[in-house]
Design a protein that fits this description.
Helix content is 43%, strand content 19%. The longest helix is centred in the last third of the chain and has 47 residues. The chain contains 18 helices and 18 strands. It is globular. A six-stranded mixed β-sheet has the order 5-6-7-3-8-9, sandwiched between helices. Strands 14-15-16-12-17-18 form a six-stranded mixed β-sheet, with helices on both faces.
Length: 620
């Protein structure tokens, strides 16, 4: 469906691509990877025909339908969320698209009350979700997604991942999320040293195949170099001797004619750093005692007791809305509790890496001003040196922070931590916007970090590398697991490493104590407890039955939508017109499909409303 042939592209005097070729076939799901600045976004621009190659060509099937989600921002007109989600659908199909759009918006965590909101009132992240919904409703032949998971919470990410597994079109996605790429891709395109190399399988397959290829290339290169050295040595030894001069010249000609193998490419330039070791803190780093906090009239924590000890490395996990980021902000002092005490331990110096980098960066500062604007007042030379190691070179340091990409803001926030190193580090989604090389560099730096670390992440690779203990949060209750992430998975019998991050677990840890005090109530009789348990079980069963029904109808609708696309494509094929019987059969099938979709959509909406009521009743 799309072919890139011998394409070369130079930008700002630097060669991004040189003679690259690859194909994208219908239905393929391909991951596009490479270090920052390798040319991933430029490749998207070439495919979208926003820029043209210096040499070579990009060809595609006639009428190929594209959909593109940029990494950072997309324009919003004066329209509601639902109107935005259906804005690229033909007018005569709008009535069919709305129910589909509502299902997708709900999957991306929009509430029904959001559907009629003006999209311009949304934050940047929610605008990107609305645009993502628009693309999924539009269902183009080829989706180009630039870091699509950056703006999603974990539950929405899991829904989105499952939705894309059944997507009928082709997908080319830029992503640094190994778990996401492993779940979805059947091929990887790697941009490195101005070349694009295709690997079969998902990201783990790519890692294995690349290592094997590099080992083979190294062996062949070294063998050839040894052979060349022997021939050169023989020629140098005998070229001055009359009887052997002609044979020596033959050896040199053989060397010149030999097709030289390239040596293994050097690693692409990426961030390399280590945290300066901070001063040692006391054993008790932070203590929360009887903490009370909520938003408006909604309590989040009541009587929260929590203690962080020196050297602790804990990841906070739990369902969306459980209060993970709220707890991190309470620890950081970014939120003021309504009651209780927050005590910072002896000689503790706190650093907070916020999920939204704008919370800790002044958008009006230049990069250099942001680096220098710290309590430690680092000098300009030190700041420039460190910024250079984080890929801010030359005049980059004079860029306003507000124009930086997400990855650049993340790197700048890390620079500020290094210039004023804390011994108690709080990090909220630290890998967002970082490329894989930068994530690995961050892991390496944190492995040597001697301070205390509490963090939130949906990057399973990062969690496995960093967490020595897990704290599950649900309903204002903190349950500690005194082991790494695999220990947590084993103890909770989780079926998925990613879904366990949002699990709404009970206190299954032996000896785990509630971290929030409960209001006093008199003891209940056995009969009362039995009746309450039966009522809970009945509500739970009803909710589960409704949940299964909604999922069943949703799957049926997805299958109907897919078949409808196939029938429409067949009817648009000129060859179908010459087969009257086939054309009539397809036309009749299309009518039946459209009628069934309308009925099933109505059934889905009714079932979804019943499920919402059941969930609310179960929670009350």
């Amino acid at each position: 469906m799309l072919s890139v042939s011998n394409v070369s592209k130079t930008y700002a005097g630097r060669t991004l691509f040189s003679g690259v070729s690859f194909h994208i076939n219908r239905g393929e799901k391909i991951g596009l990877i490479g270090p920052n600045g390798a040319g991933k976004s430029t490749l998207f621009s070439l495919l979208l025909r926003e820029t043209t190659p210096d040499d070579g060509q990009v060809t595609m099937e006639k009428g190929l339908d594209f959909g593109f989600l940029p990494q950072e921002s997309a324009p919003v007109d004066d329209m509601t969320v639902l109107e935005l989600a259906t804005s690229h659908v033909h007018e005569h199909s709008r009535w069919e698209a709305e129910p589909k759009a509502k299902r997708i918006l709900k999957g991306l965590a929009f509430r029904e009350s959001d559907f009629d909101r003006n999209a311009r009132t949304l934050s940047g992240g929610w605008v990107m979700r609305a645009h993502l919904a628009r693309l999924l409703v539009q269902e183009p032949d080829l989706l180009l997604l630039d870091e699509p998971t950056n703006h999603l919470d974990l539950e929405s990410l899991i829904w989105f991942q499952e939705y894309l597994q059944g997507y009928p079109g082709a997908i080319l996605m830029i992503s640094h999320d190994r778990e996401f790429l492993n779940a979805l891709t059947d091929a990887i395109l790697e941009i490195s040293h101005s070349k694009i190399t295709r690997y079969r399988g998902n990201y783990d397959d790519y890692v294995r195949e690349k290592a094997a290829r590099e080992q083979q290339m190294l062996g062949a290169f070294e063998n050839q170099q040894r052979e060349i050295a022997k021939m050169q040595q023989w020629a140098d030894r005998f070229k001055a001797k009359a009887n052997f001069a002609s044979r020596a010249q033959d050896k040199l000609k053989m060397i010149d004619r030999m097709e030289k193998l390239e040596g293994p490419a050097t690693a692409a330039k990426t961030v390399k750093f280590r945290f300066p070791q901070p001063p040692r803190s006391g054993q008790r780093v932070m203590t929360l005692k009887g903490l009370e906090f909520g938003y408006n009239d909604t309590p989040i924590y009541q009587g929260l007791d929590f203690e962080v000890e020196r050297g602790q490395r804990s990841v906070l996990v739990g369902p969306n809305g459980a209060g993970k980021s709220t707890l991190l902000k309470l620890l950081a002092g970014a939120l003021t509790p309504k009651g209780g005490k927050r005590d910072l331990g002896h000689n503790v110096k706190l650093g907070y890496f916020a999920q939204y980098r704008g919370d800790v960066l002044n958008m009006k500062h230049t990069v250099l001003q942001s680096a220098m604007d710290l309590p430690s007042r680092p000098g300009e030379n030190l700041c420039r040196t460190l910024l250079g190691s984080f890929l801010f070179h030359g005049d980059d340091v004079f860029k306003p922070v507000g124009v930086l990409s997400g990855g650049e803001k993340s790197r700048l926030a890390l620079v500020r931590l290094l210039l004023d190193p804390p011994n108690f580090l709080l990090m909220d989604e630290p890998t967002t916007h970082l490329d894989m090389g930068s994530i690995d560099a961050l892991i390496g730096a944190l492995e040597d970090y001697e301070g205390t670390l509490v963090f939130i992440s949906h990057d399973v690779h990062f969690i496995r590398a960093m967490a020595k203990s897990v704290i599950h949060i649900s309903g204002g209750v903190l349950t500690p697991y005194a082991g790494d992430y695999q220990y947590f998975l084993d103890k909770t019998k989780a079926t998925s490493a990613r879904e366990a991050l949002t699990a709404n677990l009970t206190n299954s840890q032996p000896g785990a104590a509630s971290s929030s005090k409960r209001e006093f109530s008199p003891p209940k009789s056995k009969e009362q407890k039995r009746l309450e348990a039966e009522a809970r079980n009945a509500r739970s069963k009803a909710r589960k039955d409704l949940d299964q029904n909604v999922a069943k109808i949703d799957a049926e609708l997805a299958a109907l939508d897919k078949r409808k696309l196939e029938v429409v494509a067949a009817l648009q094929d000129p060859a179908t017109y010459s087969d009257t019987v086939k054309f009539r059969a397809l036309s009749e099938e299309l009518q039946k499909l459209e009628s069934t979709i309308v009925k099933q959509t109505a059934a889905w909406e009714k079932a979804a409303e019943e499920l919402e009521r059941a969930v609310a009743a179960e929670a009350s």
